[in-house]
Amino acid sequence: MSSRPTAPNRRSTKNEYIETDTGNKISRRAHIEGKQNIMLGGKSVLMAGVTLRGDLHRLQEQSEGDERSKGPVTAINIGRACIISTNCTLRPPMRIHHGTMTFYPMRMGDNIFIGHSTHVSSIHIASHVHIGANCVLGPFSVIKDNCKVLPNTVVPPHMIVPAGSVVGGRPARILGEVGDGWGQGQTGGGEEEWVEGGDLRGVVRSIKG
Amino acid sequence: MTTAFPYVRYACPCTETAAPPLLGKRSSQDVETEQDEGLTFNPHDQRANFSLYPLDQLLFCDECNHTRCPKCWTDEMIYWYCPHCQFDVPSSSVKSDGNSRPSSSSTHLRPDGGSSSNDSYILHCQYCDWSTLEIDVKFSKPSRITEQLQKAWKARYGAKEEKDEEDRKQHESPGTQHDATFANLQRFYKDQLSESGDQPNMYSNSPYSSPANLARIMNLYGGLSYNALKKTREKPQPMREAGGLPEGLVTYTEDGIPGEEEMIEKIKTLGLEGTASEEQRLTTPQNYDTRFQDELWPIATPLRVRRGKRCRTCRQFLARPEHKVGSMRYKIRLLALNYVQRLSISPLQPTAPRQNPSFQLRPETLPEVKVHPHQTQQYILTVRNPIFETVKVTLATPATTPGKVASKVTILCPSFTVGPAGDMWDEALSASTTSDGSRRAAMASLTGSSADGDRQPEAGKVWERSRNTTSVILEVVPGAVKSPPKIVPDDKQEEELTEDDDILEIPIYVRAEWEAVPHDAAGHADHKGERESREFAYWCVLGVARITQT
Ligand SMILES: [Zn+2]
Ligand SMILES: [Zn+2]
Ligand SMILES: [Zn+2]
Predict the structure, then answer these.
(1) Which candidate in B4, B28, B498, B544 could, as Cys together with B504 as Cys, close a disulfide (CB 3.0–4.6 Å)?
(2) What ranges does the record give for the region Disordered, renumbered to this chain (chain B) (predicted)?
(3) Which residues pair with B110 in a beta bridge?
């Protein structure tokens, strides 16, 4: 028993991620709705238990003819080297417009880290953003470049977090600014060099299985 | 404080009073005599909190060859902007209109057009569902909210104050004017004095000024009897005190402070939760006198500012952001990260797979990093070189850590070289995939012991070396958090441990020396061969773990 306990485990963890041509890693245990409405920029990771609601997209206008309805509508657009940790939910924001529910596409930049169990309904998250675990980013909230959202933060709907801010609290408030060296100082990809807001390719590479 | 271990903090040499920054001509040999240079850096000192920084928050002045921290740089406003609408606000209007954007709404209050009445808007918080309906404020248009708010405020409180004033002037006139009141009062008492003084005034010319004395004397000498005098005095009104406004008396009764009764009643019904907290009251001057939460006034979004940083000594820009709202680009940025040798520490024999606490991917709680007293721990101390020259590094550390818990520290190889940094990130990336560091660690964690496990740390030997990093072994014997029980209780010597005294923090003095092309000669071909020696030295603190009590 004890001699080869790792063998079955290893096979199952090996199957954990499906890797796409562009290097995205998608956990088999992620719940992805509306695949055709989700864009992944490459080298991004969707971990186990992640829910992506690509099915919640803006309805196409039927009257516009064939040309418009050719390509699928994008509901969630995730850039390069983003990490969506375990049990996160990404849900495009919705508002009632002229009596009908309208979903707005969610745009995310590059090198975004989202900690586990965070719920995202933002309209836009720029690049080099580090979001802690157990956060709630309310509908239509905007997180600009180089921001840090502390764990357990609740960003209210429609809040705009200006670039280079540190936010925290319930409701979120701007607590300060990130250092001038935010995301800088990486000369290699080793774990001891991973920095918040930095290039996340090294972290992405370390996620295996 | 919950700190993720291990961490490294860097002391800006500007805070050193005992040990001056070692610049220039000192040789490396006197690291051993480091004691002479002054006290070792004590991370448990209360001042240490204010001089230790993560490296990414420090800047570096290449003119002064010195790191710069918030204490030794000066801030310079580059531009103001509204965080909500991301518009640049000219500094002239900041100065005239104050530090808030006139047209924007509060942080998470936004105009809500959904209210039923037409052409009427409210501010609504979608976090707590508060709206301006609670303070009975509506807006006629969804723009220029701050202006409208200001108007509403004035209409409510400004006018009321003015009206109050006028009311009082009309009805209680001239009660409100101090001068008039005083005049009334003075007149009253003068009248009183003259009125009440009329009768006994028959003796007013006598030197015996007190009527009682006079009466006694008169009695003695057989004038009017005391009783007779008394009688005559009863006739006129005795001197009395002022009794009302016309006489200049202003009384403050319970209804003198308007609404105090109501306020007490309100507190009775709402309880303490209904009152405004100090934090809420201090948000804006309009809320300074607000006592209840349902009277709090919303505030406009404070403007944000983007700042540049200048060296306090030579005035050159160390960080100068681009003048564009939302852009995080810099025209000038001299980060300490690119100049200062970076230290990192990890256990030689990791008990658990390493996990960077910043990138926790799963909800499991990380095991607390703890060490036991008197159990020798070995750590790999890695020095990473950010500059493009080979650097000679000398490390010094006190034999026992300062603070209330003394741990023994030994660096097995305190002097070594670190190779130059390369310029391509990707090159480094590809190198790291082939480097055996991570693979070896993975192997070790899989098999429990690898081929490397036999390797023993040796004094004077470098543990590991890559292109621009060198690792050495650091040995720590953690001290006891509580001193062993004494046979004779001795209260005096027992020092009270305070919070975080049980954190094992190792101060290390790092000195880096290298040869570089001189500043002024960089462009000249004829100076090409010339090199000058440079040196930079600083204290840093390694936060290793918490020492267990037992
Ligand atoms: Zn300083
Ligand atoms: Zn609220
Ligand atoms: Zn300078």
Answers:
(1) B544
(2) 93-116, 157-179, 431-460
(3) B124
Q: What are phi and psi of B503, to 5 degrees?
A: -80, 130
Structure tokens at B161: 């104050």
Radius of gyration, alpha carbons of chain B: 39
Query: B436-447 and B425-434 helices cross at what angle (nearest 10)?
Result: 30
Closest by Cβ to A145, choosing from B328, B356, B384: B328
Condensed to tens digits (0 to 9), the pLDDT of residues B358-401 reads 888 888 777 777 888 888 989 999 998 888 889 999 999 888 88
284-313 of B, contacting A, C-beta below 8 A: 304, 306, 309
pLDDT band at B42, cuts 50/70/90? confident
Angle at B347 between CA B345 and CA B348, to 5 degrees: 115
Residue with tokens 């529910």: A101
DSSP state letter for B516 = E
Residue A180 and residue B342: Cβ atoms within 8 Å? no
Measured distance CA(A154)–CA(A119) in Å, rounded: 10
Integer Cα distance of B326 and A143 in angstroms: 11
pLDDT digits (tens, 9 = 90+) for B76-105: 999 988 888 777 777 666 655 444 444 333
B55 shares contact with chain A (CB less than 8 Å):
yes
> What number of other Cβ atoms are within 10 A of residue B128's Cβ?
10
Q: Please say whether the beta carbons of B300 and B145 come within 8 A.
A: yes
In a domain, B198, yes or no: yes
Q: Is residue B311 part of a domain?
A: no
- Residue A156 touches partner B, C-beta closer than 8 Å: yes
Of the candidates B55, B362, B468, the beta carbon closest to that of A86 is on B362
Average pLDDT over residues A147-173: 93
Residues in chain A with CB shorter than 8 Å from the CB of B344 are: 192
Beta strands in B113-206 (DSSP E): 122-125
In order, the DSSP letters of B282-314 are TTSGGGTT--BGGGPPP-PPBPEEEEEEEETTT
Residue A104, pLDDT > 90, answer yes
Expressed in angstroms and rounded, the spacing between residue B21 Cα and the centre of ligand 3 is 14
Measured CA to CA, the distance from residue B358 to residue B375 in angstroms comes to 28
At residue B172, the pLDDT reads: 47
As a whole number of angstroms, the distance between CA B361 and CA A92 comes to 22
- Report yes or no: A147 and A127 within 8 Å, Cβ to Cβ: no
> Which chain B residues are Cβ-neighbours of A193 within 8 angstroms?
384
Domain A7-206 grouped into CATH 1.10.10.1800: no
A187 and B125: CB-CB below 8 Å?
no
Mean pLDDT of B495-509: 78
What ipTM does this complex have?
Answer: 0.81
Q: Which residues of B touch A174 (CB under 8 A)?
A: 83, 304
* A195/A33 Cα distance (integer angstroms): 32
Q: What's the rounded Cα separation, in Å, for the pair B85 and A159?
A: 11
Quick check: is B119 in a domain?
no
Q: Specify the pTM.
A: 0.74
Amino acid code (one letter) for B518: P
User: How many other C-beta atoms lie within 10 A of the C-beta of residue A13?
Assistant: 12
Contacts of A190 in chain B (CB under 8 A): 432, 437-438
Instruction: Show the domain range for B216.
Output: 166-295
Residues B290 and B347 in one domain: no
Whether residue B341 is found in the same domain as residue B249: no
Residue ending a domain, choose from B247, B265, B295: B295
Buried b / exposed e along B189-199 (16+ C-beta atoms within 10 A): eeebeeebeee
CB contact under 8 A, B358 and A130: yes
Residue B302 falls inside a structural domain: no
Spatial CA neighbour of B324 closest among B83, B98, B78: B78
Spatial CA neighbour of B353 closest among A182, A145, A208: A208
pLDDT the model gives residue B68: 92
